[in-house]
Amino acid sequence: MDYKKEENLRRGPWLEEEDERLVKFVTLLGERRWDSLARVSGLKRSGKSCRLRWMNYLNPSLKRGPMSLEEETIIFQLHAFWGNKWSKIARRLPGRTDNEVKNYYRTHFRKKLEGQNYDKIIDWSRNTGEDLLRKYKETEITWTRTTTQEHGFDKTVKESKQMNMESDKETCGGIFERESFGVMKSPYENRISDWISEISTDQSDANVLEERTSSSSENNININVGSWWFQETRDIEEFSCSLWS
DNA sequence: AATGGCCCCAACCGCCGTTTC
DNA sequence: AGAAACGGCGGTTGGGGCCAT
């Protein structure tokens, strides 16, 4: 349905009675056929508007309240991999919407990262997968320090942790170890750990392949295996879509 | 108390891929 | 097979609330 063609449609904030009516009809007809649902319900709203209101606000499975530290971590880390794929990121956060994630990122992270030249740190097109993962981990450490401060963690502990990061690499695997100062990993972080370790495994394979390619013919066209690897693994969804189930 | 600036977030827009007829 | 309808996505906007001056 085209908004411009439907001049008598209501726009702007939803009234309480509109919400009630929408909930009633979605319960009755299901989350589909939004245009016909909008018509049948008598709401003077477009199907799109109804869908959006339900998806972003009325759906009972939505989580309310501020983002947890775990959710912040996931948003940041997945954004580092996928970029502005808000719906994809939101799928990793049960009860959160793409709109919410997008707004959250814009208001909370972008400002912080602008100050840290984030866009320059992560240059998707010019780095190998290995570079990207390393640089990503570096930004993660910096970011962790800022947010943990905000959340009341002890700054000194985290900073000394960061200095040991190089030697910790093997055990850390890129995910900060909060167990070491008394906070257990959440299920969110465990899943992130799993994703990252799967990525690392794939990357090792890619690096082996890269070595073989370059040693066999040094003057060949440069095939950036690292980038290939990263391209593939940016679509983690392909092999981990059931993580939340 | 008034006001201007900023932040936050719900809602809208336009585009595009998919599904339905 | 092709047109229309539908649904999903990312970017943008506008208004309410908060805070500093």
TrEMBL record:
Subcellular locations according to the entry: Nucleus
Any GO molecular function: DNA-binding transcription factor activity
Gene3D superfamilies: Homeodomain-like (1.10.10.60)
Protein name: Uncharacterized protein
Residue span(s) of domain HTH myb-type: 6-62, 63-113
Gene Ontology, cellular component aspect: nucleus
Domain Myb-like: 6-58, 59-109
